């Protein structure tokens, strides 16, 4: 089984790295934008990237299901399902910000197994899978060992939406930790996995936004949950905490739930 997982990870990583050339062909170039039903933007780069990944996955893993942001689901009754976000951070992408990512995760019988974060403009690939080490460009990474929130570097994602939806909770979060930054999308979660920061509070996510991150963070020694401390699954409500240690996560949840 271990050798099988190694092979799956190797092939999936190559698919993501090959796919990353597609958004880079369009990055910092004029693009036609469309608005989806939720008013979020989508471009030809999003759709072309997902189409490529879906085709490659279907050829490499024909028995697996697929759940992608742009083109929906295929074979959802399969034991193993791939979750795809072709450009996580389209608003960053269309404004020339290099902190957009590409997410690919494999979920087996409801449990996250493999998580891959590719940052095309930074040429960074983060990979983690259950029971094994996490890596960045092939080098082992681990979470920090911070357990006290007062000593933590905390990122608050989707601050604009969170402050509008729940200003009291947002205000509490803005007073937590030793250092705070406002951010977006997948990269802060990868920074927790690589030991650069300690925690991320995120909001308004879809399964393809958070499930690919779980395998990476867990392999690096960290923890992800919803705002109630429950494990993340396809039916989670999109409110997410990522932390370097369980103790730090619990302190952060206490602030969120005050």
UniProtKB/TrEMBL annotation:
It comes from the Bacteria. It holds the Pfam family Inositol_P. One of its GO terms (biological process) is L-histidine biosynthetic process. SUPFAM superfamilies: Carbohydrate phosphatase (SSF56655). This is Inositol monophosphatase. Belongs to the inositol monophosphatase superfamily. Its cofactor is Mg(2+). Mg(2+) binds at residues 69, 85, 87-88, 209. Keywords: Hydrolase, Magnesium, Metal-binding. GO terms for molecular function: metal ion binding; phosphatase activity. The keyword Hydrolase applies. Gene3D superfamilies: 3.40.190.80, Fructose-1,6-Bisphosphatase, subunit A, domain 1. PROSITE patterns: IMP_1. InterPro entries: Inositol_monoP_metal-BS, Inositol_monoP_superfamily, Inositol_monophosphatase-like.
């Amino acid at each position: 089984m271990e050798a099988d997982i190694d092979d799956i990870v190797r092939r999936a990583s190559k698919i993501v790295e090959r796919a990353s050339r597609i958004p880079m062909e369009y990055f910092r170039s004029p693009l036609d934008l469309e608005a989806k039903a939720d008013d979020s933007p989508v471009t030809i780069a999003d759709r072309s990237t997902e189409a490529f990944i879906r085709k490659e996955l279907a050829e490499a893993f024909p028995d697996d299901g697929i759940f992608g942001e742009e083109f929906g689901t295929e074979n959802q009754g399969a034991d193993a399902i791939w979750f795809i976000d072709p450009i996580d951070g389209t608003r960053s992408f269309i404004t020339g910000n290099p902190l957009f990512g590409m997410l690919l995760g494999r979920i087996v019988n409801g449990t996250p197994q493999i998580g891959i974060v590719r940052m095309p403009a930074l040429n960074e690939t983060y990979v983690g899978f259950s029971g094994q080490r996490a890596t960045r460009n092939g080098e082992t990474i681990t979470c920090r060992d911070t357990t006290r929130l007062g000593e933590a570097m905390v990122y608050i994602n989707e601050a604009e939406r969170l402050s509008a939806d729940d200003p009291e909770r947002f205000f509490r979060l803005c007073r937590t930790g030793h250092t705070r930054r406002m951010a977006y999308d997948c990269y802060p979660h990868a920074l927790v996995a690589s030991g650069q920061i300690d925690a991320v509070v995120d909001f308004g996510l879809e399964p393809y936004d958070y499930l690919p991150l779980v395998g990476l963070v867990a392999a690096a020694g960290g923890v992800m949950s919803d705002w109630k401390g429950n494990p993340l699954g396809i039916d989670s409500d999109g409110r997410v905490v990522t932390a370097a240690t369980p103790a730090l996560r619990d302190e952060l949840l206490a602030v969120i739930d005050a």
